[in-house]
Specification:
163 residues; alpha+beta; six-stranded mixed beta sheet; three-stranded antiparallel beta sheet
Length: 163
């Protein structure tokens, strides 16, 4: 009897990641609409600086050539959110900067006030573009919710394609 799981022709991994990135967009959209963070909420957002659509000042690109984490807490301005990206003003060493970050570039979102965290895979290699695969394949792993020692919940989405 063959117990192997058949390859999926539905890209569940991409669908789940897109849905979880929409969570980030919805949260940021609420903050943009209300004009501020509620209570003690604040966000650490990690993103790939070289991902398509990322627009940050050259000095930050030089300092963070691969990945960067920003904090939205006390001092940020002009937060704007649409379906594909967000933009925000932040100060780095007392020099203001506007950043544009597509949701597809985000690798992590963390709200320490409530111990909520999401992790994402970013396809920053054009050779591994999902549209370039002949057939979708899953590795049998998906979104995993784990509880850490401090009681926080971490949702980790770790999908990799087999070649």
């Amino acid at each position: 009897m063959n117990t192997a799981v058949p390859d999926s022709l539905i890209p569940y991994d991409e669908i789940v990641q897109e849905a979880l990135r929409a969570v980030v967009g919805r949260v940021l959209g609420q903050v943009a609409t209300t004009g501020g963070l509620p209570g003690s909420h604040h966000f650490y957002i990690t993103f790939k600086t070289q991902a398509p659509g990322v627009d940050i000042p050259d000095r930050l690109m030089e300092r963070f050539p691969d990945e960067m984490t920003i904090v939205l807490q006390h001092r940020f301005w002009d937060l704007k959110v649409d379906a594909e990206r967000f933009s925000v003003g932040l100060s780095f060493n007392q020099v203001p900067a506007m950043l544009v970050i597509p949701f597809a570039a985000i690798t992590g979102f963390h709200d320490p006030a409530v111990n909520f965290e999401l992790r994402f895979q970013v396809n920053d290699d054009p050779e591994n573009d999902p549209d370039s695969y002949e057939e979708a394949e899953n590795d049998g792993e998906g979104a995993v919710v784990t509880q850490t020692e401090d009681g926080s919940n971490v949702v980790s989405v770790d999908f990799k394609r087999k070649k």
